[in-house]
Amino acid sequence: MKTLLVLRHAKAAHPESGSDHDRPLTERGCRNAVEAGTVLARHALAVDLILSSTSERTRQTVEHLLPASGLNCAPVFDRELYHASVPQLLSVIQALPENCLTVLLVGHNPGLSELVSVLTGWIPSFPTAALVQLDLSIDTWGEISEHTRGQRQWLFNPKDATGF
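Above: the chain sequence. Below: its structure as tokens.
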């Protein structure tokens, strides 16, 4: 079995000028990222890999999450995850190292909520900083596809503080 943690980046500032890719977190986004890290710490999961989009808001989400989570792995930033579709996300997941049992994937909507829906049959409310644990009945990451059915274990939604 493999475990996939899916985290949507925390609340970002509206673009005033510059690119969407460079949008930073708001103050609330920073707080919510820390809360998501606290949720990870409470669930005491051994995360083998953190894989994140390269956008500024996903980078900052990871930076704020890490100290609160107690996780001990360096994040890997992948440009392919920036606004990735479900097929792109599945392709990235299929290429994950097999020695990783639990992976934290940090990215953007609508791709992430659609991925969760495809893997579980559940249509989530997935606001910024939402975090969900999916247990997947696969032996290798290469097996994951749109036909894989996973089990949702819990959801942290910062808007209603569930998942604790």
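The chain has four helices and six strands.
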